[in-house]
Amino acid sequence: MVASLQLLEDEGIANGVCMRAIQAVNVYFIIVAGLSWWEEVSPYDPIGTTVAIIVIITISAVKDAVEDIKRHQEDKLLNETLMASVMQKDGTYEEKQWQHMQVGDFVKVEDNEAIPADLILLYSLHQDD
User: Fold this and answer.
1) Are 108 and 63 in the same domain?
2) Residue pLDDT, tens place only, 89-128
3) Range of the domain at 98
4) In angstroms, how far is CA 53 from the centroid of its own chain?
5) Are residues 90 and 63 in the same domain?
6) Fewest Cβ atoms nearer than 10 Å: which of 5, 19, 81, 90?
7) Sign of the CA dihedral with 61 first, then 65, 66, and 70 last
8) Which of 69, 73, 107, 113 is closest to 88 using CA atoms?
9) How far apart are alpha carbons 113 and 51 in whole angstroms?
10) What is the DSSP letter of 42?
11) Do residues 44 and 103 share a domain?
12) DSSP secondary structure string, 86-115?
């Protein structure tokens, strides 16, 4: 099961649809839709139940795609922002885009400046008023 989930994660667009399909609630409805095509067993219309689960999975996939696109645009905007003052080897600071930050960079953060969550505070000069 873990190997199959890893395979689904590497597939891209099909990932969202497959991940929706293996959720417990959707598995139930997929089974009901499949059984509805067996006329001896099902009192339901096979087209109605099949279309219903397809619509539900499609709407979920579209919603996830819209959220992913929005998150990607916000990340790109943040990564291209010139906000980091990074210490150079000679002790001076220069402005850098967040996307060009590297592990081990020393960043100077000023008062009321937005910072990403992946910084470690090494030293602070905070004066209480």
Assistant:
1) no
2) 787 888 888 888 888 788 887 778 777 667 787 877 777 6
3) 82-129
4) 24
5) no
6) 90
7) positive
8) 107
9) 51
10) -
11) no
12) EE-TTS-EEEEEGGG--TT--EE--TT---
